[in-house]
Amino acid sequence: MPTRPTIVAVGRTKFGEHYEKEPETLIEEAWLKASMEANLERRDLEACYLSDYFLPITNKLGLEEGFLSELTELHVPMEVTRSFSSALSNACNAIQAGRYNTVLVGGIEKMTDRWDKIRDDLMLLEDPWSYYAGCTPEANHELMLRAYIKKHGITGQNQDTLNTALAQISVKNHLHGTKNEYAQYQRKITVEQVLNARKEAHRPLGLYDYAPISDGAAILILTSEEAAKKLATKPIYVLGLSSATDYLTYPAREDMTHFLVTQIAMKNALKMAAKKLSDIQLVELYDQSTVMEMISLEDMGFCKPGTAWQTIHENCLDYKGYYEIDGRKLFVNMSGGLKADGNPLGATGGAQIFEIVKQLRKEACDRQVNPDGELDCGCVLELEGFGTKGYVYILGRK
Amino acid sequence: MRMSSEPIERRVSYLGDRLRANRCLICGKEYFEIRDYCGNCGRKSFGKMVNTDLFYEKGKLELCTLVNEPTNKFTKLGSYIYGTASFHDCKIRVPGRLTDRTAMCNEDVDFSTLEGREVVPRFRRRYSVDKNDVIPTISLAFTFADEYYPHQEYQIIKPKKEYDSPGIVGYGVYTSRFRIREGNIERSVPFIDEDAITAAVEAGKLALIHSRVDNTSIGKIYVGSESNPYAVKPIASKVAQVLKLGEENEDVQGVDAIDMEFACKAATSMFKDAAALVDYPKSNIKHAMVIGTDNSQAAPRDCPGGELDLFVGYGAAAFIFGKQDVIAEIEGWYSCTSDTPDFWRRDGEPHPMHGGRFTGDPAYFKHVRTSAKKLMERLNLQVGDVDYFVAHQPNVQFPIRISKELGFKEEQYAPMLQVAKFGNTYSGASPIGLAAVLDIAKPDNRILIASYGSGAGSDAYSLITTNQILDKRQNQKMTIAYQAQNPFLEHVDYTTYRRLKQGM
């Protein structure tokens, strides 16, 4: 049996606007936390997998690998990808192949330095044809909502309920964010605030429906099962991982109400982990907008297509800290999600993994989950672009 | 991130301007982007993909939302409806924005009333760029098919009749949906994403629709303009590429394309060249297209040259010349020229200057009078032999005064007077007057046109209409009258007019 990639340490910075900090400072901060957890030195690393979406643009860096080499004084193999999940996927493959025993996986982004240009950058990378046609990063989410409403014939009172449900997602994630010391937003908001922001914008979604622009870094140390024994008392295993890819141009996809990549990646990751959907106790999913959280619950299989809004609405009327689905607790975005925790693209996936690792180790303090049965298994969904790539990781204690 | 790296711009424009698509002959799947094989069918589909495009198609607005905080390059568009349009029974879906709509940022839009409506693609500027950059264009801009710009099919038919002398085989006029009304004069105003290039393409498209000639049979295109947004780079190449003029070989069009400039007579000057070219047996050119297009320039009112700001319009007229299925044969022409500096724009200056009182007698009247009189002499024509007279129209008074002076009666010159509806469209001005007459002329009518271009010169032509003018009339919904009296026209105030005219 091949070795299972094992997470022995995690570290991250607070997400938010760090205009006084250079990218070096941010990644150093995350690295120090992770290296202290595992009591590692830089020279112990055999390879580095780094992710960032924009660093060469936002911070006028050259090759990020060289930047990292200067920072770490390391000359080991280094690879740079767009998302943390993508970096982790490469690292997992290398560990499983037996090539390395101890590697670093890091994610870093500094979006606020780009200020107002970031939306153009984002669109151009996410969906260039739509950008040329006048799309904004927000408009694709709104079209997805329009497509969803039309496909499922949601009208009248039901449409109001759906709109409220989306607002409740944001309220819930902000509530979770208040318990996360690293979160960008650690304050509560109300459904009225979400709805008013939409009214002010004259659009289907408003300010509080979207994840913010953020700076931040996250790091984890990945080892083989064998190497982990010396480094960690509470190792977390990557039980399943999968990714899938879809068309760049969102309108060109067959079904605009879902992300095919999530559906495929989830199915394959569960298969690899030999887990059932009902084994998943907590999820960090990619709520770049409230619509995305709703859609993802369906794409991952927790809710049937066209029904997630009802589930969300019922659960959030008297929110107990989790969604109750088919009589089971499902903890979603305990970190605050992208909405409250923040969304520094290259580091976002790292924060999602960080949350699941902390939860599975029962080190999540105030936001520690108490599932039905023994805490065992969590799941992360990260997307790249507007559903162009989807990564699912299933992490477990055993 | 700079986006006007020329190769990228070329590829995006190549696909996006024309909305080129591809269909697999095996499974029928359609793709927006050009590709050699079908994703469904794999290798066996090589050589089985047919080129299609959506340029003349009618689509459906499927989904939409309001964009009122556009990305940086779109900020000059203000707020707009953005969404997806589907074509060919939803086999192909593209992103797009609705254009030609002003002021929406503080409105609550009921998207469901827009979704499901039919749309037509419009060729427009894509977004703002730096002054030094290539101007990006795209046809992923749409308007509703039941509004100002109707959907019209482009049918190509085999010619029925060969004529002895060359003439006009089809024409099209494009003016925008926006107007400014001041006193008795109404002028067309471009939307912010329009310019002389986009109008030229739209007019050329309408001329192809009207003439029903094969776009690949056009061997030369002349574009006359004095408001080309480039000092160096032709408009004609864009028109040739977007309208696919001449045989396409890989991504190069088998057509000669050239820009002309002689103030307001840049287009009319080339009528004779186009006619001569199609008449020259060894040219092997069946059709030639001439377009006069201008987003007529004028300084703001309180600046030198600002008096022009009361008259300038926006529009383009395209004429296709050939010897088959002619609607108006050319009977003869006369051109005259003198070095008269009545109106000019120095290189690098944004607005033209104007010789004031000087532009009347020694300039406009002298040249128009000379060309018209000389042509009538040459053809031995009396005023009574002419059914319609068309003159250049920089304002309302000049064309009337010269018509009267030449002895024409009101019924002979009234139909050409379009300046009070569209303003002075510079290179497009007398051609639009001619189009207005062709819209209503009967077979065997004689039309005398005398253009004027500052600098200065005039081209006079005598045209005689044929029977086919009536047959082809039904091919065109976008007539002059349709554009002048249209329920969907939107009137803007002076500030908006200046902003729109300035463009992106």
Instruction: Tell me the strand percentage band of chain B.
Output: 25-35%
Shape of chain B: globular
Query: How does the helix and strand content of chain A classify structurally?
Result: alpha/beta
- Principal-axis shape of chain A equals globular
Radius of gyration of chain A: 20 Å
Order of strands, main sheet of chain A, comes to: 3-2-4-5-1-6-11-10-7-9-8
Low-confidence stretches of chain B: none
Largest sheet of chain A: 11 strands, mixed
Number of helices of chain A: 15
Can you describe this structure in just a few lines?
Chain A is α/β, with parallel strands linked by helices and 398 residues long. Helices cover 42% and strands 18% of the residues of chain A.
Structural write-up:
The complex is a heterodimer of chains A (398) and B (504). Chain A has helices spanning 23-38, 55-58, 64-72, 84-96, 118-126, 128-132, 137-151, 156-177, 191-201, 225-231, 260-273, 290-299, 308-317, 337-341, 345-360; strands at residues 6-12, 47-51, 78-81, 102-110, 215-223, 236-245, 282-284, 323-325, 328-332, 377-384, 389-396. With 398 residues, chain A is of the alpha/beta class. An 11-stranded mixed β-sheet of chain A has the order 3-2-4-5-1-6-11-10-7-9-8, with helices on both faces. The model of chain A has no long low-confidence stretch (mean pLDDT 95). In chain B, 23% of the residues lie in helices and 29% in strands. Chain B has a 9-stranded mixed β-sheet, sandwiched between helices.
Break the fold down into its secondary structure elements and pairings.
The complex is a heterodimer of chains A (398) and B (504).
Chain A: E1 6-12, H1 23-38, E2 47-51, H2 55-58, H3 64-72, E3 78-81, H4 84-96, E4 102-110, H5 118-126, H6 128-132, H7 137-151, H8 156-177, H9 191-201, E5 215-223, H10 225-231, E6 236-245, H11 260-273, E7 282-284, H12 290-299, H13 308-317, E8 323-325, E9 328-332, H14 337-341, H15 345-360, E10 377-384, E11 389-396
Chain B: H1 6-16, E1 20-24, E2 30-31, E3 49-53, E4 59-67, E5 80-87, E6 92-98, H2 111-114, E7 118-125, E8 137-144, E9 162-174, E10 178-182, E11 185-189, H3 196-211, E12 218-224, H4 236-242, E13 247-249, E14 252-254, E15 256-260, H5 271-279, E16 287-295, E17 314-324, E18 328-337, E19 343-344, E20 353-354, H6 360-379, E21 388-391, H7 397-406, H8 410-413, H9 419-422, H10 429-440, E22 446-450, E23 457-465, H11 468-473, H12 480-484, E24 490-491, H13 494-502
Parallel strand pairs in B: 6-8, 10-24, 12-15, 12-16, 21-22
Antiparallel strand pairs in B: 1-2, 1-3, 4-5, 4-7, 5-6, 7-8, 9-17, 9-18, 10-11, 13-14, 16-17, 18-23, 19-20, 22-23
Helix pairs in contact in B: 3-4
